[in-house]
Amino acid sequence: YYSKSGCVDSLVLVLTGANAGSDKLYCVNNGIFNLANPSPTGGVWSSVGSGGLIDANTGQVDPAGLVGTVQYIYTHTGCPDTMTITYREVSITTSFVNEGCSPGNDGSITATGNGGASPYGYSWSNGQTTSAATGLIAGTYNVTVTDNGSCAQSTTVSITKDVSPEVSVAQ
User: For residue 155, how many other CB atoms are within 10 A of its CB?
Assistant: First the structure.
C-alpha cells in the first residue's frame, strides 16, 4: 500500500511454491511409475534416502526392493514440498495336498497373503474365493491374493493324483 499527496496505489504480490501432491500408498508389485503431477511444472524431484528415483525431472521411480515409507521432495525455484509414499508388497505362501487315488476330488491348496494390509481376498482359477481351495482334482491352479488396499499378487500351484501302491502276493 502506497500513499503520497492523496494518491493511493497498491501492489498485489502472489507467491507460488511447489506442490508435490498428496501422500499415497503404492504396491511394489505394480512396477515402475511416475510420481504425481506436481505444480508448477519445471521443478526437480529428490528423495530422502534410497527412494528408487530413476529420473529427477519426470519423477520416475523403480520401487523394486522398497518397503515402508519414503519421502520425495519436489523443488521448484528453491521452494520444496514433500510427499510421502508408503510401499507395500503382497507375497503368497502356499501348501497343498495332492488328490487321493480313490475316490479322488479331494486335493486342496491353501494360500496365505503376507506383507500387505489385511484382510486379504482370494480368487482361484476354479472360482473359489477362500484361502483354501478344496475338492480339487489333479491339475494346475492359479490364485490371486488381494490386500485391503487393492495390492495384488498371483501364483500358480500344481497338484497331482496319488498313485495306488502296487501290491503283490507271493505264493
Answer: 15
